[in-house]
Design a protein that fits this description.
Radius of gyration: 24 Å
Largest sheet: 5 strands, parallel
Helix content: 40-55%
Strand order of the largest sheet: 3-2-1-4-5
Distance between the termini: 26 Å
Strand content: 15-25%
Number of helices: 14
Length: about 290
Amino acid sequence: MSKLLVVFGATGQQGGSVIDYVLNDPDLSKKYALRGITRSASSETTKDLQKRGIEIVEADASDAKSIPAAVAGAHTVFIVTISIYDENLKTRELERIKQIADAAVATGAKFLIYSTCVAAERLHGFSVPAFDSKADCEQYIRTLPIKIPDRDTFAIYNFISPDAPLPLIDTLHDTGKYLGPMLVDPDRYAGRIFCYATAQWSYKQVAEIITRVTGKKTIYMQIPYEQWLSFLPPGYKDSISAMMQFIEKPGYFGPDTKEEVEWTVQQVREKLTTFEEFVEKHSEILFAQSE
């Protein structure tokens, strides 16, 4: 069965050259099925590609919603970006590369091939924004779990920031500990709200802790919002996405989440379960579906 090679910029010089080469190579043309990504499926160049048997998907790196369908099912993705030479060059290019690369990883792509440039400022002390922007994108791509040879790397996917704080609790073992102070001195705590959580950990910290405690490499992948929505069961999108957005800002318990959690913990008499301890107890559950 052919592997799917997705080519961005299919109607441009670089993408077009890749497509020509694969089509004209007797071995590669059998190994790979081709999908060309273009901003206009109605152009004459696009129509010529379709006549040659190339699947065409219309997508634009500036439109995050269009990216998941473009890379769906990809084995390998060739990415080329158009540089727009203004003050937003670097931020724009990195944002678009993240959208494409994250979606490609989320769909299970094994390889990303990116048309990059030399890191002029980092390596040679010359600030060349057109080069450095692509070099920054390359550095980002190199952090992603591409070409995983085995099942020893695991990923947590969400659309919120990797640094957004999440209040976590061992519900089964610790809920009763929070009720203890209320039962001992109900007058003191009458009308007070306890914000149950041992502490706050970000997704990035969660992945690092799981890696350290279990020895199984785990990373957090921030993916495009629309891609994340596609993973949810029917009927869950609105409620779950609203909850995650609220967790990121203003916070799970509101803008004073940090202070509220710290105050609540100070009231508890018993030791609470840390996330490290939770992982130690339940690592077999965390990886049960992936073994």
